[in-house]
């Protein structure tokens, strides 16, 4: 079985794209090859992103902030950009989306969690559109009614 290649891009690759990559891994497991990158990477994963994803059982501490030039070569099945605008270089992809999601890095913790939950819902929907069924307990994205995973 060929795994779908997904790429999530934001400016610093420290919050949004890292959390989206984590959700893709949580929801689809080994059925996707999820990656993230930044147009101007900060070099670190945001401590709050690590904290809010750990609340859902995902450890972002092993991730690192990297630039798009560090990604493995080849086309992606889907590339999702989040707020990098003109700074997002072209990456070959079968499908492209631009999600308007605020950068949570300076937001209060409850608003940071709201951004995390929005990312979870959007990744869930993207996977469904790509015909990758979410698996297990992670099938219900954060903030969704429990019946959403049934």
Question: How is this structure best summarized?
Answer:
By secondary structure, this protein is of the alpha/beta class. Helices cover 28% and strands 17% of the residues.
Structural overview:
The protein has three helices and four strands, in the order βαβαββα. It has 150 residues and is of the alpha/beta class. It has a four-stranded parallel sheet with strand order 2-1-3-4, covered by helices on one side.
Set down the secondary structure blueprint.
Blueprint: E1 4-10, H1 16-28, E2 32-38, H2 47-54, E3 76-81, E4 93-98, H3 109-129
Helix pairs in contact: 1-3, 2-3
Structural class: alpha/beta
User: How much of the residues is beta strand, in percent?
Assistant: 15-25%
Distance between the termini: 25 Å
- Helix-strand sequence: EHEHEEH
The radius of gyration computed from the alpha-carbon positions, rounded to a whole number of angstroms, is 14 Å
Percent helix, as a range, is: 25-40%
Uncertain parts: 145-150
Mean pLDDT: 86
Strand order of the largest sheet: 2-1-3-4
Task: Give the biggest sheet.
Answer: 4 strands, parallel
The number of helical elements comes to: 3
Number of strands: 4
Q: What is the global morphology? A: globular
């Amino acid at each position: 079985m060929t795994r779908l290649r997904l790429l999530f891009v934001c400016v610093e690759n420290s919050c949004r794209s890292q959390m989206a990559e984590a959700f893709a891994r949580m929801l689809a497991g080994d059925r996707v090859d999820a990656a993230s990158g930044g147009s101007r990477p900060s070099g670190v994963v945001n401590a709050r992103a690590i904290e809010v994803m750990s609340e859902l059982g995902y450890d972002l501490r092993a991730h690192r902030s990297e630039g798009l030039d560090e990604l493995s070569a080849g086309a992606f099945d889907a590339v999702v950009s989040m707020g990098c605008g003109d700074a997002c270089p072209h990456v070959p992809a079968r499908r492209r989306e631009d999600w308007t999601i605020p950068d949570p890095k300076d937001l209060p913790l409850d608003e940071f969690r709201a951004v995390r939950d929005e990312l979870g819902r959007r990744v869930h929907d993207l996977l469904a559109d790509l015909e990758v069924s979410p698996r297990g307990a992670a099938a219900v994205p954060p903030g969704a009614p429990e019946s959403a995973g049934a």
